[in-house]
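Inverse folding, one chain.
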């Protein structure tokens, strides 16, 4: 047996093991509360003079009825729902046993009163406030350039 090939095989196996055990956790972007899971809050980069940022995310594993009623983040002074009928107060209902999403082009979260431009590739702290579930500490990822 060639010792160089055995060493390479061992190094490849070790690299694969590290990738399999660490990369999915970093990509998952899941934030758990006692009664639900928030998956991948994301937005697009914004211009310096942008009035708001559209935020998308998914809610799953909803065990009890709840409602998203607030967002706290250092990058914005407020939040509201963006809907096809225009902006509305933030009150997004979550029903037990059902997944829900806030998405571009439909009902979405809008961060208002931006304090700074949101830069591509950055992540910003964000707390999601639920009526019954309390506060979920999450991270807002800026995954795409401005539309």
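Residues assigned per position:
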């Amino acid at each position: 047996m060639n010792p160089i090939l055995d060493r390479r095989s061992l190094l490849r196996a070790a690299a694969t093991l590290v990738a399999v055990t660490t990369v999915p956790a970093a990509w998952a972007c899941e934030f758990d509360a006692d009664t639900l899971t928030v998956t991948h809050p994301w937005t697009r980069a914004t211009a310096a003079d942008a009035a708001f940022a559209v935020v998308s995310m998914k809610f799953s594993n909803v065990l009890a009825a709840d409602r998203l009623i607030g967002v706290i983040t250092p990058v914005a002074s407020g939040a509201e729902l963006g809907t096809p009928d225009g902006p509305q107060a933030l009150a997004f209902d979550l029903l037990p046993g059902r997944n829900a999403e806030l998405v571009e082009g439909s009902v979405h979260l809008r961060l208002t009163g931006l304090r700074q431009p949101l830069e591509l590739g950055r992540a910003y702290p964000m707390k999601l406030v639920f009526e019954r579930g309390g506060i979920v500490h999450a991270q807002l990822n800026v995954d795409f350039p401005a539309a």
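The mean pLDDT is 88. The chain has one domain: 30-144.
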